[in-house]
Amino acid sequence: MSEAGAPCVVGHGIAGPVDIRDGRGRPLHHMDVGGGAVQVALCKGESALITARGDRPEPTVTPVRPNEDAPRWGLPPI
Q1: Annotated region Disordered: where (predicted)?
Q2: Domain range summary for the chain, segments of one domain joined by +
């Protein structure tokens, strides 16, 4: 996530070249800025999926079990 009007720079941690696509699977313009990060051209409310080049997974959203106890994001401790 980037601040309003700021470029969206993402550190992805993927070894080698990447593909970056929008929610409909269309390629997005991006620029490698070094250090394992890319700058992605996004407008307000848009999202991007970053994958290894040639990888086309079917995105699904599912709950993930935590490795350890952690505070909830954005909520006060219970």
Answers
A1: 53-78
A2: 8-52
